[in-house]
Amino acid sequence: MAASPGTITNADSASGGGEDEGKHVKPFTPEKAKEIIMCLQQPAVFYNMVFDWPAQHWTAKHLSEVLHGKQIRFRMGTKSTDTAPQFETACNYVEATLEEFLSWNCDQSSISGAFRDYDHSKFWAYADYKYFVSLFEDKTDIFQDVIWSDFGFPGRNGQESTLWIGSLGAHTPCHLDTYGCNLVFQVQGRKRWHLFPPEDTPFLYPTRIPYEESSVFSKINVVNPDLKRFPQFRKAQRHMVTLSPGQVLFVPRHWWHYVESIDPVTVSINSWIELEEDHQARVEEAITRMLVCALKTAENPHNTRAWLNPTELEETSHEVNCHYLNGAISAFFSHYGTSEVVETQALRTNREYTIKEELNVHNHVEVEQIGSHNSSSETVKQEAASPFGLDLVPVIPSSQEPSSERGGIFENDGEEFVSKNGKSFGKLPNTKRQRMMSESENAVVEQVASDRTGALSQIFVSTDDLLDCLVNPQVTRIVAQLLIQGKSV
Prior knowledge:
By secondary structure, the chain is an alpha+beta fold.
């Protein structure tokens, strides 16, 4: 959709890469961009890839004109410094237009309507998870304004995208997505991303309460952590980046992220890219859904909103969840076919966070050395090449020094940028990753004990405590593999 007169463009904001936009040449072909996305395990920012997208003009003001007074649901949160995360189950919600949001966001004290009960100085508003197919259901031509085909995914556009509009302070709690990887296009304003690698999962104290399919939440407010209650968080490897208009962030599979708006108005567009690993992940999610719903509804059948995330609108009966699990397993077999392939896939996924990481770390120097003496190996040649440069910038780790205030700017240290298939793009001392992996194993057990430090005289195991163990991502992965292997006989 064409930008209205006076709409601010992001051409200047997108600068900072090495490509001269005036030449209208993108730094990566769609094929190369997809190769990077499918191989890279490190978060990275693409520059100069969206300067010709019509969606670059989608400011909140422009969208308010496009939507013509359409009501949107906003999540209302407090601008607090509490150490507890602001989960969506604890937030209030209002139905309002973008015009009303923009008026409220200008701090007009005389405003009436949906935002009248929310002091702008004390609250933030977030229109999050707005799927294009619902938001623009009567304006489907607007889907073409988002061109994910430039990243190697033909036919992918706004129809497979989600819109996020927020005020200063709006954020999503720290979580990981169990399905796919993520591409995020920043349209207006800036967002600060706090990211943690998959091997840090035990240090993030994962929980499935509140329950949302495909989201594993952290019990920690990562910008103001309670290190007495969650001491293992000191070992987490925080990566930070501020995403500006015109930039696209790639978030690899299972990377934890906390995202906060740091400008008065922010607009983002994202798309989750399906991956091969999603077939087993759906089985794991079905197991999680069945266990969470069974135990939580038995505990309190009349108050599902206390533990079910507002984004979950489907039925939670045991019959429905059984059907969901059987469907996930059937889809898995439909995709892989033979029991041999099933077993191979299960074993490969199970070793994802251990053997693959160890091989990458222990062997990357050796592989590079061999590659320098073996010109006949095309694979080794490719591994020696780095995609990083002025138009693709890696998100590097912050200081590892423990702190109770982890929300500021940290110094960077040397970190390994490792891609899938053993590709190495940087430097990391092997001893550090070895230590992190062994600590990850111990932290799974230590996590439960640390939650109760100082309260040993009044130990009480709640339903949520039990679920934290039963649906821990490591546990559901094993259960899914046992189910799949059992049915493949």
